[in-house]
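Fold this sequence, please.
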Amino acid sequence: MRTYLYGRFLGELPAGYADRIHAVLPRLHAAPVLYDTIVGQALDKPHKAPPFSMPGELVRQQTQEVWPTWKQLMTQSPSWNDYDGYQPNA
């Protein structure tokens, strides 16, 4: 197994080292648990997952919901008039 710190290769771990560490300190599936927690909270409380946020993107991927594009959001009515006559490029 290779080891990295801040993207820099530090060398190979001794054979069996990772297995011994994981036996004492199991990984506990942190990534999928975090994903499920974020998506679950976002589905329960949609204000926690606005479009273009990381939670919003996870919900969009999970539900396959079609969300408006950035341009659609900025030009819809009512708006904050962010473009105020300026027409953004396609």
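The longest strand covers residues 8-12. DSSP finds four helices and two strands in the chain.
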